[in-house]
């Protein structure tokens, strides 16, 4: 019952507004190395823990967590669009097993995922449909959110289920670390924005283009130092990565208010990493490697990557 973990930041801005070539090349080298590891491992099942950015999940019904038993990628920004090869019965059994472990999780037979899941799959596997995949949505942008501890426990419960399948499993955490791109908040939103956050599924091409243009403009302003968005916080990011490597239970002490204060509103995406490490931890002691970290203002992101495996497998 082998397991491997890959966690990495994502950005919708890659290919739209890139950092200097040496930085971009370094990121692409790290991504290529991760992909080579995954292809050599040849997983029988990928579980991708990922947030959504008001593309598949809205306030008409916003769960803290949701397992996808069938899913399509919408293809926002430059991410791939199309169906994910989800083993539906296995995903349903996973949800059943998590619920039996006293962790409440929703189940979707028609999940829409965005770049949060799709970019990680493309980077790590070369496409959306290379391996069977179960997407697990973790609400990371739409308050109120579950605690980080709850994300860890969700991951652990999924890890215990995965161990029982006997499959060669890859768990992926997509997102983070400190960052605050211009994802709107419901509190204080105009009627028009509130409607988009509550029921904005399948926007018009013009609506989508306007959203994407706003993000690009925000990245340019942020990089020029002309932005009210939360600054990146490399110290906090590296401390978080260290927790993932050696002190996972310490996340239980990180409150949601402190995450927003120290890392910015979208830093809550770290819960995708926490869930992935939680799943790995269910297999016993593990060894993790910090593959990359750099604050990248062009992508409004404290950008990191780690991989890990059980000690016994190393
Ligand atoms: O509607 C939009 O596109 C709003 C902006 C947005 O979704 C930005 C997302 C950024 C990330 O996913 C990220 O940096 O993690
Ligand atoms: Fe994101």
UniProtKB/TrEMBL annotation:
Q: Where is the signal peptide?
A: none
* Active-site feature positions: 115, 179
**Catalytic activity as recorded in UniProt:** 3-(2,3-dihydroxyphenyl)propanoate + O2 = (2Z,4E)-2-hydroxy-6-oxonona-2,4-dienedioate + H(+); (2E)-3-(2,3-dihydroxyphenyl)prop-2-enoate + O2 = (2Z,4E,7E)-2-hydroxy-6-oxonona-2,4,7-trienedioate + H(+)
Q: Which UniProt keywords apply?
A: Aromatic hydrocarbons catabolism, Dioxygenase, Iron, Oxidoreductase
One Pfam family from the UniProt entry? LigB
- Annotated ranges, domain Extradiol ring-cleavage dioxygenase class III enzyme subunit B: 7-304
This protein's source sits in the domain of life called Bacteria
Cofactor dependence is on: Fe(2+)
Which pathway does the database say it acts in? Aromatic compound metabolism; 3-phenylpropanoate degradation
User: What EC class is this?
Assistant: oxidoreductase
In alphabetical order, the GO MF annotations are: 3-carboxyethylcatechol 2,3-dioxygenase activity
CDD domains hit by this protein:
MhpB_like (cd07365)
Q: Which InterPro entries match?
A: DHPP/DHXA_dioxygenase, Xdiol_dOase_suB
- EC numbers listed for it are 1.13.11.16
Family, as annotated? Belongs to the LigB/MhpB extradiol dioxygenase family.
Describe its function.
Catalyzes the non-heme iron(II)-dependent oxidative cleavage of 2,3-dihydroxyphenylpropionic acid and 2,3-dihydroxicinnamic acid into 2-hydroxy-6-ketononadienedioate and 2-hydroxy-6-ketononatrienedioate, respectively.
Oligomer status and interactors:
Homotetramer.
Name of the protein in its database record? 2,3-dihydroxyphenylpropionate/2,3-dihydroxicinnamic acid 1,2-dioxygenase
Q: Which organism is it from?
A: Massilia solisilvae
Name of encoding gene = mhpB
